[in-house]
Amino acid sequence: MNSHRAELGVGVVGVVGQNGRPAGAGGVDVVAGGPAAKAGVSVGEVVTSVDNTPVRSTADLSRVLAATNPGRSAPLTVVNPQGRTTAVTVTLGRLPGS
């Protein structure tokens, strides 16, 4: 079964900023050979936008991916552990069905 949902190939947790507000989806696992890995995303980086849509939580990330077609190239913004922001282009994968 195919879910027809886009996926990044990243296991994430919610990240809270210094102000105590949600700040993004932090990558705790990057699937080798997956869309995020191919785009250069590393463990420890925080996803802050996908397809020019802000990501402040894991729920935001899920909503953006659910509304985006697999196979599509999309801009992805991440912040590394040192605070450097990087923009890359990721070709979204297809979330396997259950």
From TrEMBL:
Instruction: Show the Pfam families listed in the entry.
Output: PDZ_6
Stretches assigned to the PDZ domain: 1-82
Gene3D superfamilies for the chain: 2.30.42.10
**Where do the TM regions start and end?**
none
- Indicate what this protein is called per its UniProt record: PDZ domain-containing protein
